[in-house]
Amino acid sequence: MSSTLFEKIINREIPADIIYEDELSIVIKDIQPQAPTHLLIIPKKVIPKLSDGLEEDKETLGHMMLVAGKVADLLNLDDTFRIVINNGAKAGQSVFHLHLHLLSGRSLNWPPG
């Protein structure tokens, strides 16, 4: 089975602009930003989609949300950001390794699209 793009980044096989890393996750800048700040919060454990998460993944899933807050503080985002999770191709997911999008730095309208 081939590695996902994000596994290759985690394993340092391909470069990325890493903002934060800990034992469970890595945070990188999105290469196609949709806002002045557009980060991807990626668990090191491969979970293809949010809907594929299991009971045993709840620590990892909760940790990702806490990392979002921590990174927002580190970058002085003033508690003004949006978290987006795309679940499946029709929802816009293009890499099947769960990740959170953290967007900030401009007004974000609702509904998002």
Main structural class: alpha+beta
Strand line-up of the largest beta sheet: 1-2-3-5-4
Q: In percent terms, what proportion of residues is strand?
A: 15-25%
Amino-to-carboxy terminus distance: 34 Å
Based on CA atoms alone, the radius of gyration comes out at 14 Å
Write the layout of secondary structure elements.
Layout: H1 5-10, E1 18-21, E2 25-29, E3 37-43, H2 58-74, E4 82-84, E5 100-104
In short:
This protein has 113 residues and is α+β, with helices and mostly antiparallel strands. Helices cover 20% and strands 21% of the residues.
Structural account:
- With 113 residues, the protein is of the alpha+beta class.
- Helix content is 20%, strand content 21%.
- It contains 2 helices and 5 strands; from the N terminus they run H-E-E-E-H-E-E.
- It has helices at residues 5-10, 58-74, and strands at residues 18-21, 25-29, 37-43, 82-84, 100-104.
- It has a 5-stranded antiparallel β-sheet with strand order 1-2-3-5-4, with helices on one face.
- The longest helix is centred in the middle third of the chain and has 17 residues, at 58-74.
- The mean pLDDT is 95.
